[in-house]
Amino acid sequence: MPIRSGLFLKEWRWLAFWLIAGAIVRLAPIILDGSRLWLESDDEAYFRSAAMLVETGTFSYSAHNLPTVFIMPLYPALLAAVVSLFGNGEWGALASRLSGVILSLATITLLHHMVSQQFDRKTAVFTAAIWAIYPPAILVSGLLLTETLYTFLTVLFFYSLQMASTGVSTQQRFRWELLSGFTLGFMTLTRPVSALLPFVAAAALSFSHGWRKGLRYGASALIIVGLVMTPWIVRNYIHFDRVIPLTLASGNPFLTGTYYDVNIWVNGRDPEFPDWPLGWKRVPGDEIATDEILMNTGIERLLSLWGQEPEKVLHWYTVGKLKYMWWDHLSMWKSIELPYLPIEPSLVLHRLLLLLAAGGLMIALRQKRAEALLFIFAALYFTAIHLVYTPLPRYVFPLLPLLFSLSAYFLERSLETVSEFLIRLRRRPPTPT
Where does the Glycosyltransferase RgtA/B/C/D-like domain start and stop, copy by copy (predicted)? Predict the structure, then answer.
């Protein structure tokens, strides 16, 4: 018992060390370069949305004060809670960034606990260390984007689903299933792409634990997600006189995804709307009509490109987007590159972690670990969705801590193999001369 207690204490000391280290490196960009941590994109719109929600009670997006269905409400609501306490000026922005740091540190803690249950304590410490110092995780925690919240919820979903499928009693499994379902609901309130995850999880559980368990979980998750989403659906019906379960915002990402390497400015700016690329049109004050215009423009552009260069289009919608999302993952952060978070070395580290994860995934699959199968289903789902739309790396960012747990597992297994080999080498009797 004393030995086990000592190991437990040592494990939590390592976690505390990496949490402190993670906090320091996350706070540094906010303190040193807080004014540079703007993408001049969704982040500013989210902050304005939060301020408008506090000031007028209207959930809107970007600069106008009309009700919106362009984005999901949970992350702006979180920012609104911070803005209500600290205002919508510099102090409000600072407090909002600090809330992202807190969520990121909570993700490290939860990730450590989950991996210690899945694999072992060494792998858990390695995973916490990776996510504590992984440069994009440091940078993203200080940006006002959905990534911080959605990554935490993603890890919580995987952990609760894991516990629901391995609980020792029916009561325990039921509690974890409830938590998993509500987490899925909150994920959907953050990003609409989560709406089909109950089916993905049900399919993964059917393969790993049998179709009855998969079907039962899928049905219960759908019911819980429906309950969580009901206030949002009712609100949309009141404002727009139609049933809108998620958002009406697929036109922009679909049209963006038709541009090679997501270079939407390749043809210059539109003369009618100079803040938009050439050919992009909108109906001022009408997001729904604008979304329909952008979707139709995207379909027309894709068909035109397919008629001119089908091989190039096919390559972009398969290999090109896949590479842009996963292999060239740091491309979208170049606009705010900081001298102490250089892009190129960070990209080398990212690719190394991907290669290690491939090895860890092979080992986990050979050991028939259900968690590996769930990750594969989720990764395929998110990747497939964004192959159709824009392949921005930030959209697969929330899966990276789970992926890097496989990197850590491969690293731990490799070190263990080398250690065992050296021990056998020392014990080998000397060869007689």
Answer: 73-232
CB 111 within 8 A of CB 127: yes
What integer is the mean pLDDT of 245-263? Answer: 93
The tens digit of pLDDT for each residue in 348-393 reads 999 999 999 999 999 999 988 888 888 999 999 999 999 999 998 8
Question: Cα separation of 222 and 210, whole Å?
Answer: 19
pLDDT given at position 1: 38
d(CA 54, CA 61): 13
Residue 89 lies in domain: 2-247+309-415
CA-closest candidate to residue 179, choices 114, 233, 112: 114
Beta bridge partners of 338: 341
76 contact partners, CB below 8 Å, separation of at least 6: 46, 49, 50, 53, 59
Q: Kindly compute the dihedral angle of the four CA atoms of residues 221, 223, 227, 233, in this order, to the nearest 10 degrees.
A: 100
In Å, what is the CA distance from 423 to each residue of 337, 412, 420, 432?
45, 16, 5, 20
Q: How many domains does the chain have?
A: 1
Whether the model pTM is above 0.90 = yes
341 - beta bridge partners?
338
- Give CA–CA dist 331/99, Å, rounded: 25
Indicate whether 29 belongs to any domain: yes
Residue 41 CB-density burial (10 A; 0-12 exposed, 13-18 middle, 19+ buried): exposed
Q: Does the CA dihedral 250-254-256-261 come out positive or negative?
A: positive
Residue 121 included in any domain = yes
Q: Is residue 322, in this structure, part of any structural domain at all?
A: yes
**Residue 367 forms part of a structural domain:** yes
